[in-house]
Amino acid sequence: MLVRIVKLSIEDQSIEAFLNNFENSKQKIRGFEGCQFLELYQEQHTKNVFFTYSYWDDEAALNTYRNSDLFKGIWAKTKPMFNAKPEAWSVNKLHSLD
Length: 98
Hints:
The chain is α+β, with helices and mostly antiparallel strands and 98 residues long. It is built from three helices and four strands, in the order βαββααβ.
């Protein structure tokens, strides 16, 4: 399994539009073949900083999503909202405690 973490810094005036875009897209992303899990976080003290955490079967599944029309449409709406370059990490989960 691959875990994808993405940090998104959004213009203050675009936060509501960003959240609406995520709300309208989240089920489609989560339902995309190879996606096992999806969460959105908001930084507690810097309200315009968000993180997405998603679990993918493997790197090929993530890349299929990243090359899909779904991702391209979401990205086209989201990209103008950034106030800093997004940061992304693909990591391997080593431990998980419930």
